[in-house]
Amino acid sequence: MATGPDDVVVIPGGELAYWDTGGTGPVVVALHPATGTAATWAPQRAPLADAGFRLVAYSRRGYLGSTPVDPGNPVSAAADLAALVEALDLDRIHLVGAAMGGIYALDFALTFPEVVHSLTAVGSMLGIVDESWRTALARVGLPGSAQLPPEFRELGPSYRAENPDGVESWLRIARSAHPGGLHLQPTAGEITWSTLRELRAPTLLVGGGADLLAPAPLLEQAAARLPQGRYAHVPDAGHAIAWERPDEFNRALLGFLRAG
Fold first, then answer.
1. How far apart are CA 59 and CA 163, in angstroms?
2. Long-range contacts, stretch 142-146, CB < 8 angstroms, 24+ apart
3. What is the pLDDT of residue 146?
4. Strand 7-11 relative to strand 14-20: parallel, antiparallel, unpaired?
């Protein structure tokens, strides 16, 4: 199968657009944020391949190049990812998810634990439904952040100041991400502190010091509560950590993957 950026894999009821660096190394599958697509992971493509990993990044159902979400019959993101794993004949995988992609990655790891070798959630609110977690997010989050333009909400101030070209590239991806409107897929199950006690995979949570949506102190506390949790901090990053600070993020990710 070709590995170009415009490949599609057939899944039940549709297709998913993806790219694949190929090779025989350990497989890393990357799940993009709600504002992204497979293209969001471009800063990780060469570094992970050069380090001997096979990186697969795909656009979820409803995103650019992939089949739209059917609101009357939504399919869970975990079911789609399981279909992609089967179609590409992957074995055990390392999962990396950013923001909303981190929630779906966590849900997949809980639903299909035998497939997941490790899990990394980057700048993610984690999708935990317990009232204590939701209250904590609301308490430390910036009021009105949902109404901010996406680049102010998700990109840190230092990055916006120093890299206008990078901001514009990020915005091009965000603006094209969901041509039919944003229709999020459901999770396969509920993510609670109780279900997280059953999480088998070593898990890395990555927080950005300038993240308005998933404040770093909460992610550090969450990592301490996971059975095999670790935390990595990127001080000057906003919500889009892997995009804004790829060098720091890639070092943390590769260190975690190699240790695993």
1. 25
2. 142/212, 145/212, 145/213
3. 77
4. antiparallel
CA dist 141 and 135 (Å) reads: 10
Question: Are 95 and 118 a contacting pair, CB within 8 Å?
Answer: yes
Q: Concatenated DSSP letters for 164-224?
A: HHHHHHHHHHHHHS-TT---PPPPSS-B-HHHHTT--S-EEEEEETT-SSS-HHHHHHHHH
* Residue tagged 């204590």 (tokens): 132
**How far is 243 from 174, CA to CA, in rounded Å?**
12
Q: What are phi and psi for residue 56, nearest 5 degrees?
A: -115, 125
Question: Which pTM was predicted?
Answer: 0.95
* Integer Cα distance of 257 and 32 in angstroms: 19
Q: Give the type of residue at 216.
A: A
100 touches 129 (CB < 8 A): no
Check whether 1 has a pLDDT greater than 70.
no
Q: What DSSP element (H or E) covers 95?
A: strand 93-98
Query: What is the spatial distance between Cα 203 and Cα 206, in angstroms, rounded to a whole number?
Result: 10
Which ranges of the chain does DSSP label H, i.e. alpha helix? 42-50, 77-87, 100-111, 131-140, 150-154, 157-162, 164-176, 193-196, 216-225, 241-244, 246-259
Can you read off the two tokens belonging to residue 119?
């899990």
Give yes or no for residue 3 having a pLDDT over 50: no
CA distance linking residue 98 with residue 34, whole number of Å:
9
